[in-house]
Amino acid sequence: MDLSERIENGMQLALRYSTANGCPPLLARGMRHAVFPGGARIRPRLCLAVAAACGDRDQQAATAAATAIELLHCASLVHDDMPCFDNAATRRGKSSVHAEFGEEVALLVGDGLIVAAFETVARETLHAPRLTAPLIATIAKAVGSPYGLVAGQAWESEPEINIDQYHRAKTASLFAGAVSTGALASGGNPQDWLVLADALGSAYQVADDLYDAIGKTGSMGKPAGQDTRNGKPNIVLSIGIEGALGQLRLLVDKAADSVPDCAGQDAFRAMIRNEATRLMPKQLAASAA
Amino acid sequence: MDLSERIENGMQLALRYSTANGCPPLLARGMRHAVFPGGARIRPRLCLAVAAACGDRDQQAATAAATAIELLHCASLVHDDMPCFDNAATRRGKSSVHAEFGEEVALLVGDGLIVAAFETVARETLHAPRLTAPLIATIAKAVGSPYGLVAGQAWESEPEINIDQYHRAKTASLFAGAVSTGALASGGNPQDWLVLADALGSAYQVADDLYDAIGKTGSMGKPAGQDTRNGKPNIVLSIGIEGALGQLRLLVDKAADSVPDCAGQDAFRAMIRNEATRLMPKQLAASAA
């Protein structure tokens, strides 16, 4: 089974549990709307790729971690799209959850997906109890407060934003979570992979800012121009398109160079360059590669 | 250390982690506002009381479960109070989180508390890996979808509510989670305690409906009359105050009678009657006792 298939199977299984018979129908539809069809599934792919590079010692645990990370990413998109934040009517080319089902359902869809993420890891690691707590603690750190996704989003409500802290929490933290849990699930050392996670998270942030600035909906599915409209920090506004592209090149190089010694080192490096190019605005990809 | 002290220490520890240095200041203040000072802490007390009745074999794990359950209860109050649901300006005699810090922060406070709950259990059960997954799966079932708190709240958005399913998910599920995790943490069998949890959950729901109907802010801290104003199901509207009081008496008896064989059986029964009376509207307590 290839990585994409494992991820989609993991997501389907998680949603089968959380929208099982007896679930309020709108909540069930909203949760599925938030998760299928998916975007690029960047973070869970990275998680599984790292797990494979570390020897794929426990595929079930790695798939559970990857699934949890993607569920949490989807939850954050649902909540970020709500009227009190980005007020985005669309996501991944269709209505956002609150636009389709109302704010109440959207709020609960996000909450339900957060819970489903942790439930997935617990359910799928019963056979490997020594993995459960480290995986859940790592994922919680990546998405919670004070340094994860929730904190990243919360920086937007502060009168003064530290842009580095903001990006680290809003984007890099979940990449770090994906990489760390991939390593943990295979008995690898998460520390060996953190430079890579950090560089890659920053690279995707720059790519996302570029999409926003040049007016295309990016790989993260956010409507273009939204940062500017919402007065949000965007690196292109501070160092320009050329500057941002240069930054992106440096970050992808840094990520590729930091792949630790492992069986599939060369393949992993190639994958990083490939994914990084694939997720960039097409008209810029050539110059950044 | 008595139960209340263990709970407050557990909550303080969880909040120290999730609002540590580097946390966005408004998020940190909002999270503390949502959690301190607490209400009656009914669910975590019940969790710790069951753990004690089962022999208190792992106090650290029981305290972690109790803390997680209370964090999730607090998270649900923050989200339920938001404008798209109850639009409640006050909670536990002070401003609700969204009234004090705005909707954005309130949404994130709820999300952050959900994550902190699971993080707490993972962090505090590293010494007992066989407890982590069962505790987290049990808690997730109690608060998530399709049968937990999130689903209970989601029933309010459906065109037709099954009132039994609604109350079971909205109230009884978290009581079941509290009781089950208390038993699990001490090596007891959660099944032995589920009749008690179910009866007690229903009793508190009836007590809460009574508070709402007679115009007092109840033990759950919800402003009086809110159900009527929001067109929500309330048992008093269907069977009257006397009918509801009779129902409450039956449920408390059922709960007390269902305490399984254990060292502290008599003390546990007395505690249930005592807590049930304590949490009822004062002018009704005498007739319901």
Q: How many beta strands in the DSSP annotation of chain A?
A: 2
Structural class of chain A: mainly alpha
| Percent of residues in β-strands of chain A | under 5%
Question: What's the rounded overall pLDDT mean of chain A?
Answer: 90
Going by CATH, the homologous superfamily of chain A would be Farnesyl Diphosphate Synthase
The largest interface is: A-B, 60 and 60 residues
Counted up, domains of chain A total 1
By CATH, the topology of chain A is Farnesyl Diphosphate Synthase
- Percent of residues in helices of chain A comes to 55-70%
Low-pLDDT stretches of chain A are none
CA-atom Rg of chain A in angstroms: 18 Å
- Give the overall silhouette of chain A: globular
Examine the secondary-structure arrangement and name the CATH architecture of chain A. Orthogonal Bundle
Which oligomerization state do the chains in this entry correspond to? homodimer
CATH class descriptor name of chain A: Mainly Alpha
How do the SSEs of chain A run, as a string of H and E? HHHHEEHHHHHHHHHH
- Tally of alpha and pi helices of chain A: 14
The description of the largest β-sheet of chain A is:
2 strands, antiparallel
